[in-house]
């Protein structure tokens, strides 16, 4: 059709070209020529290239029907890189439309295409500048509106929500927005709410977009999204209606399958009392050859159904079968592993298996997937658990073996290897039986093919293969695949390292239910390599015992603080104290035991008394003796200020004054982020005022308990300085280099370094917001504070449209946000007015004074890092 139009218009182009040589002469004929040529040549081809790229983005994105579909298809950088030529061609043609046809009405649309090219290439600043330029300079409302909506989308992409709010507010006042732009606007609003997690607001925006759409495929997709959101909200009748609507418009088979599956779930399956009929439904779906690619989904959904019926073991079995099914969607396997990790975490409390299922889940997701960050964060805790648990179990087993006589050790290892050989052969036999139960194996058996346990052909018999591998291993050892392996002059060091020997672990290990394929051939380490792992030397045992001491302590803290398992935490910490009564970690262990016992209401008084009796001067003792102490961010701020004051006195050799400030601070704020550096400064003062032996003893104790690596390194240097040739120098003044090390390594708030080392950037011309940190008590009554602030704003800032909201930074700390301010100066003016003119009884002066301002860009960093003190250090030097 387009070619016919071009053919028809060609004579007109030829005639017009005779009279229209200039791109500047603004006559009717000239305009007609340039409008027509620009539209059907340069602009047309540039737009086609953009549309082609957007088609590839849709085609190459694999929809994840297990989650609510995203409003817009996510942009994969690999897709952009693979289609770089399309973008360059689009830019080239759009530039020609601008350069060659300056008086045509297709100049502004061509600028918009250039903005989209930059947007797709990730050059957001250039793209945004182009869209802003069009909003200010274009006289074509349709182009201007489309540019504003694309600008809004880029702000949402970057999490610049305050800037996005300005655009939304601006567009809400615009009239005569075209139907297509309105649809784009409502979809972008849905994307805005999706990105912010405001699920309730997505649905109205999707409804508005639906009213304006004529694309059947797009309508089907939006109906499916609505079905998912209603299903998640528990509104099954609405969900069923929209899943059925999603079946119209010729959706692809994948969406059809999921729409039918979820329709049945919300209509019948979840409510049916006829459990056999529900199970039969899933079985029929599984048998249908059209659903071969979705068998993992079917087994997964059946497993979820069984879990809801309380059949946990059956659910695990079905999930384990599901991961073995071939499937094109790797994310689906990730969801299955994730579900298994949740079962082993919450239902079975098996944290080791939880860790390994989380590992498997993360392998199936991309870093850009929505749940990747949450899974990765959770995995860090379980990685630490597994590391300490496996180390503790292995070391305990080996140390027990080291207490046996050499003859008993050899006998134990021989028995262990025999049992392992029997286990491997049994596994091969079981695997062989499973292989022979398939329909194809049975059919092939009639033709004499197909393996069996009794097959005479060696390579058809997995049991024979396993026996052969073990026999080879017994004779020749565990040799890597290499040429000339029988050469007699090869040394034993050439062999690969044998597997770690941990008898107790192996005795309790289970094969993972979800193993995709068993290893065809397994080998055993030789006896000598296993015997060599037993720590018969006292030095090795001592090292392993020290590792166990750390592991008991780490597991106790992980279980209490991270995994919320106070009872299990008590078990590990009590074992620590029982096995290592002289451990320097005892004060913190008692403290954690006190907290866990208090939570379980199991006589925490025992640990209260032990702390006071054995460690009366410990910061942990002071903490439980002063339960009403100031804590949280305010304690961090005040203790940090006191530290800086004490350090100045220390530098001026006023040691008694410095010590007085330090000890008063440690009494008032026993446990803050500044505790370690306050303690180290107090130790340094003891080096000036007390004996050398006490100084060394305190440094050694500090090295056992402190956690900050920089402080530990510096303390170690101090200890070395008084443990060697310099012992007699303790009364001398510190060398300049040592004094510098203390000020930079310990005093992290040193103004000279805070700006250069800070993750925050100074940008006072950017949009700013005002922040008021709040503790838990104040956050509970934030409604009264917000109402008072709105009255304050209505009276003093009636035309600024200031907005108020709250965000939880941590369990103990929330922040109240007031925005937006066009720059730093305006935000600081507001802060001055707030401090001097805003008063409410529920807001203490010290909380008011803790307020600060921050740019939008820096707020994104703060929201990610969750460390207000870190930002405050930057703020005090930058503002």
UniProtKB/TrEMBL annotation:
Residue stretches of each TPR repeat: 220-253
InterPro entries per the UniProt record, alphabetical: TPR-like_helical_dom_sf (IPR011990), TPR_rpt (IPR019734)
Pfam families: TPR_6 (PF13174)
SUPFAM superfamilies: HCP-like (SSF81901)
Source taxon at top rank: Bacteria
Keywords per UniProt: TPR repeat
Biased composition, class Polar residues, residue ranges: 490-505
Annotated spans, Disordered: 486-522, 723-761
Comp. bias intervals (Acidic residues): 730-752
The protein's name in its UniProt record: Tetratricopeptide repeat protein
């Amino acid at each position: 059709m387009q070619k016919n139009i071009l053919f028809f218009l060609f004579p007109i182009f030829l005639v017009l070209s005779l009279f229209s040589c200039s791109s500047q002469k603004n006559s009717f004929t000239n305009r007609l020529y340039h409008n027509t040529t620009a539209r059907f040549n340069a602009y047309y081809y540039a737009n086609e290239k953009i549309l082609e790229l957007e088609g590839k983005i849709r085609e190459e994105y694999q929809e994840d029907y297990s989650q609510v579909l995203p409003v817009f298809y996510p942009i994969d950088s690999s897709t952009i890189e693979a289609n770089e030529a399309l973008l360059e061609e689009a830019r080239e043609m759009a530039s020609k439309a601008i350069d060659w046809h300056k008086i045509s009405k297709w100049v502004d649309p061509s600028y918009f295409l250039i903005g989209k090219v930059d947007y797709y290439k990730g050059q957001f600043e250039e793209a945004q500048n182009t869209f802003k330029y069009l909003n200010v300079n274009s006289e074509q409302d349709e182009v201007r509106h489309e540019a504003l909506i694309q600008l809004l989308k880029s702000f949402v992409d970057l999490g610049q929500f305050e800037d996005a709010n300005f655009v939304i507010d601006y567009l809400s006042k615009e009239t005569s927005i075209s139907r297509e732009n309105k649809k784009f606007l409502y979809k972008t609003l849905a994307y805005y709410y999706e990105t912010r997690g405001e699920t309730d607001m997505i649905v109205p925006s999707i409804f508005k977009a639906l009213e304006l759409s004529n694309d059947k495929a797009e309508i089907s997709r939006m109906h499916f999204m609505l079905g998912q959101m209603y299903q998640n909200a528990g509104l099954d009748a609405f969900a069923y209606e929209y899943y059925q609507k999603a079946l119209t418009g010729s959706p692809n088979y994948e969406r059809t399958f999921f729409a039918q599956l979820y329709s049945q779930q919300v209509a019948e399956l979840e409510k049916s009392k006829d459990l056999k009929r529900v199970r039969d439904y899933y079985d029929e779906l599984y048998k249908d050859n059209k659903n071969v690619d979705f068998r993992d989904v079917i087994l997964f959904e059946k497993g979820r159904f069984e879990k809801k019926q309380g059949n946990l073991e059956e659910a695990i079995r079905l999930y384990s079968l599901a991961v073995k099914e071939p499937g094109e969607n790797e994310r689906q396997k990730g969801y299955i592993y994730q579900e298994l990790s949740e079962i082993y975490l919450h239902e079975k409390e098996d944290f080791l298996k939880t860790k390994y299922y989380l590992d498997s889940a993360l392998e199936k997701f991309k870093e850009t997937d929505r749940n990747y960050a949450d899974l990765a964060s959770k995995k860090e805790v379980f990685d630490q658990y597994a590391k300490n648990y496996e180390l503790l179990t292995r070391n305990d087993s080996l140390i027990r073996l080291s207490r046996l006589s050499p003859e008993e050790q050899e006998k134990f290892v021989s028995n262990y290897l025999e049992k392992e050989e029997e286990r491997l052969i049994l596994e091969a036999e079981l695997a062989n039986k499973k292989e022979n139960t398939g329909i194809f194996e049975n059919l092939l058996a009639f033709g004499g093919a197909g393996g069996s346990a009794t097959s005479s052909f060696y390579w058809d018999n997995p049991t024979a293969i396993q026996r052969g591998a073990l026999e080879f291993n017994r004779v020749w050892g565990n040799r890597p695949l290499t040429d000339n392996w029988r050469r007699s002059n090869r040394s034993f060091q050439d062999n690969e390292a044998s597997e770690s020997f941990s008898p107790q672990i192996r005795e309790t290990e289970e094969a993972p239910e979800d193993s995709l394929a068993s290893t065809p051939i397994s080998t055993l380490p030789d006896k000598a390599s296993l015997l060599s792992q037993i720590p018969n030397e006292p030095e090795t045992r001592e090292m392993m015992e020290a590792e166990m001491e750390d592991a008991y302590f780490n597991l106790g803290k992980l279980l209490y603080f991270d995994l919320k398992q106070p009872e299990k935490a008590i078990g590990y910490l009590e074992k620590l104290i029982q096995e290592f009564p002289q451990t320097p970690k005892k004060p913190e262990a008692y403290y954690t035991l006190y907290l866990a016992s208090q939570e379980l209401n199991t006589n925490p008084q025992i640990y209260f008394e032990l702390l006071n009796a054995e460690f009366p001067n410990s910061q942990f003792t002071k903490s439980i003796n002063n339960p009403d102490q100031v804590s949280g961010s305010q304690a961090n701020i005040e203790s940090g200020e006191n530290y800086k004051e004490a350090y100045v006195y220390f530098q001026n050799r006023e040691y008694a004054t410095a010590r007085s400030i330090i000890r008063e601070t440690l009494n008032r704020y026993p446990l803050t982020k500044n505790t370690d550096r306050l303690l180290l400064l107090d130790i340094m003062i003891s080096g000036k005022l007390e004996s050398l032996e006490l100084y060394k003893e305190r440094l050694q104790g500090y090295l056992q308990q402190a956690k900050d690596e920089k402080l530990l390194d510096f303390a170690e240097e101090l200890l070395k300085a008084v443990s060697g040739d310099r012992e007699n120098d303790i009364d001398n003044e510190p060398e300049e280099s040592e004094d510098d090390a203390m000020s930079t390594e310990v005093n992290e708030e040193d103004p000279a370094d805070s700006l250069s080392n800070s993750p925050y950037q100074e940008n006072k011309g950017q949009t700013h917001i005002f922040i008021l940190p709040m503790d838990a008590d104040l956050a509970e009554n934030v409604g009264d504070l917000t109402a008072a602030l709105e009255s304050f704003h209505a009276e003093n800032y009636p035309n600024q449209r200031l907005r108020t909201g709250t965000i939880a930074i941590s369990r103990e700390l929330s922040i109240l946000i007031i925005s937006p301010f066009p720059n730093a100066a305006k935000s600081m003016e507001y802060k001055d007015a707030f401090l001097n003119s805003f008063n409410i009884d529920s807001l203490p002066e010290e909380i008011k004074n803790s307020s600060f301002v921050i740019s939008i860009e820096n707020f994104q960093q703060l929201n990610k890092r969750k460390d207000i003190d870190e930002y405050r250090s930057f703020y005090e030097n930058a503002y």
